[in-house]
Amino acid sequence: MPKTELKAIASARSGDKGEGSNVGVIAHSEAAYRFLVEALTEDVVREHFKGINHGGVERFEAPNMRVLNFLLEDSLGGGGSASLKTDAQGKTHGLAILRMQLDIPQDVLDSVRPA
Amino acid sequence: MTRKDKVLIANGQGFWGDSILGPVRLIQEGPLDYLTLDYLAEVTMSIMQKLKGRDPSMGYATDFVQLLDRILPEAVEKGVKIVANAGGVNPMACKDAVLEVVRKHGLNVKVAVVEGDDILGHLDELMASGEAFKNMDTGEPLSKVRDGVTSANVYLGAFPIAEALDQGADIVITGRGTDPGLVLGPLIHEFGWTEKDLDQLAAGTVAGHILECGAQCTGGNYTDWQNIPKMAMIGYPIVEALADGTFTVTKHEGTGGRVTRDTVVHQLSYEMGDPANYITPDVVADFTSFEIEDEGNDRVRISGVKGTEATPTYKVSMSMRDGWKSVGSLTVSGPDALAKAKLAAEIVWQRLSYDGFDYAEDERLVEFVGANVCHEGIDIPNADQPTEVVLRLGVKGPDKAKVARFGSELVPLVTSGPPGITGFAGGRPKAAEIIGYWPALLTKDKVKTRVSVFSA
């Protein structure tokens, strides 16, 4: 089965959180949310961000919003004004997670209405 | 006081530097009861403290005064009240400047000031009384870095804002408070909510969180951006709130942008930690508790928000001097843009090293903007073959002279490096002070808030 980008079934928003960032992944359907609860583990997300995040990853679930929220502990090159990086606020980390390639089952892809 | 059934609250400013068109258009383009304006970020307080040090009449968001000069007559005519954290570290000076505007336009307006958040002058006595101000991230006590502290502010809650409105204020100026408090304060005032109405306080907090970044909930910074109409004329957000805590997120008719379940959830996810425990001085809100329903026509309804009792502490935000940094950039054209940029970076470090200036790995930065800097480590086809790149170099550290020395080896690359390097119009990058951030907690009863009301 060819891999599909996470973007096909979810959107995302990110921002700074101290010396790290938070990445909220918003599933486009209940089926997509249930799939992502299984597929987007802390380990999978830590591996995806290995070039950006140098700390741990913690996940929180908000099923009412169909959101999985990830805290990337050390992803800004130092917090606030101490960072030298272009993206010192983690503004682009949401789009970064949506590039992830996943084996998404056909029924999950079918469950997502066109936005 | 006769209570309204429904209260309309907008936010026209997501941060200091947001477009003036947001609030200007909110006043003009539709009905409104309250206009809130959020000017403060963590770093802002430190910058304002520095400005106040140079001139005791400064240290607040001067943008706010310019905005009022433009909108106040129409806001007064329409009965729109204004709540802003524009006071920064000098809310009384902000009030004086606002009263000038009020007099200039000959208006009959009451201006209230909320004070008590600024604890910089009391830090030592608070520490002597047993407050360690341990860093919430590292656990270290403040005593380690006390001398470098340049600002210290408590995040106050929404009740002082409600008290100011209870006293008849048309404009409320605060210093540091929670961002959602700007929205929750008017709701407490309008609906007579008390500290015991935890679910309502939590609902107002959720509403405030949705509004606090302006157009970020109406289609700004939105994944599916191709489906956002008229982004240039994006509508800033409004909540229509009811006394039971139910509210609808919307925007004025005919404005650009969109309000959908997805645009609102985008903003609900922004700067989120543990969604089940969103801690403010007023309540602990549970962002996993509510129902969210897209009613169509740019209307999203949120109901059933649950809250639990607030914690006994305030969050304190302190900033401090934390060394120096310098960053500069040059543009490298093709052919072979990336290879030439990599060589140019090596040349800079070698020349600095020759002169005795070596920077540790974690004290320097090399970025090739255009060759996947933002999504580093994620496989993107052809990211290593840009037609041109911006070479961005930087250093940081405690020694100002060493940091400054770096800045003078960037521009020489134009004539003594590989060909096709340009974009040096900014000249030598300078050393700038790093502002460190120290989050801590403070027992609530050690903070005294004051509300005062003035008229022109």
TrEMBL record, chain A:
<dbReference type="Pfam" id="PF23544">
    <property type="entry name" value="AtuA_ferredoxin"/>
</dbReference>
<dbReference type="InterPro" id="IPR056362">
    <property type="entry name" value="AtuA-like_ferredoxin_dom"/>
</dbReference>
<protein>
    <recommendedName>
        <fullName>AtuA-like ferredoxin-fold domain-containing protein</fullName>
    </recommendedName>
</protein>
<feature type="domain" description="AtuA-like ferredoxin-fold">
    <location>
        <begin position="5"/>
        <end position="102"/>
    </location>
</feature>
From TrEMBL, chain B:
<dbReference type="Pfam" id="PF07287">
    <property type="entry name" value="AtuA"/>
</dbReference>
<feature type="domain" description="Acyclic terpene utilisation N-terminal">
    <location>
        <begin position="7"/>
        <end position="452"/>
    </location>
</feature>
<dbReference type="InterPro" id="IPR010839">
    <property type="entry name" value="AtuA_N"/>
</dbReference>
<protein>
    <recommendedName>
        <fullName>Acyclic terpene utilisation N-terminal domain-containing protein</fullName>
    </recommendedName>
</protein>
